[in-house]
Amino acid sequence: FEGIGGWEIPGAEVYPTTPSAHREDATCVKCHMYNFNHEFEPSLDACNTCHDNVTSFDVNGVQTSISNKLEILHEKLVDANMIDGTTGSYIAGKFPTKYVGALYNYKIVHYDKSHGVHNPKYIEALLDNSIDVFN
After folding, report:
1. Backbone angles phi, psi at 105, to 5 degrees
2. Which end of the chain is more exposed for a tag (fewer CB within 10 A), N or C?
3. Residue 95, Cα to own-chain centre: how many angstroms?
4. Cα–Cα distance between 54 and 62 in angstroms, integer?
5. Residues 3, 123 contacting (CB under 8 angstroms)
């Protein structure tokens, strides 16, 4: 959930060497339990402590960009017969290591469900380099 630990496929996009502010300066509690909210839901009020006039979690279009890239990677994985396009199930088989890395990256970004908020630059690099594996 920290937006780290992906399969760092070498590629055109460089992986950031400094942690995201969401990992370095914030804590889970700081964003997800802002003002003693014990429901563990992120708050736009918490976002506004660092960002100006935030009206959605899609700050600077990061979530839109990540969602689009995740969809492209999903299509590539379907075309490679690694994911069933109808059911979304994973298909067993023998695949090149870099394809397996791309599938792993798809899964960690998809199941994180923050659409890149936890570490945007790192997630963008993971997805870009994973997509490029299939090009």
Report:
1. -65, -40
2. C
3. 23
4. 13
5. yes
Mean pLDDT of 31-56: 77
Strand ranges for the chain from DSSP E = none
| Contact assessment for residue 103 and residue 3, using Cβ atoms and an 8 Å cutoff | no
pLDDT tier for residue 34 given thresholds of 50, 70 and 90: low
Neighbouring CB atoms inside 10 A of 6's CB total 22
Three-state secondary structure call for residue 52: coil
Q: Considering the chain, what percentage of its residues have pLDDT values greater than 90?
A: 53
Cα distance between residue 60 and residue 26, in whole Å? 19
Between CA 119 and CA 95 the distance in angstroms is 28
Length of the chain: 135
Q: What is the pLDDT of residue 19?
A: 64
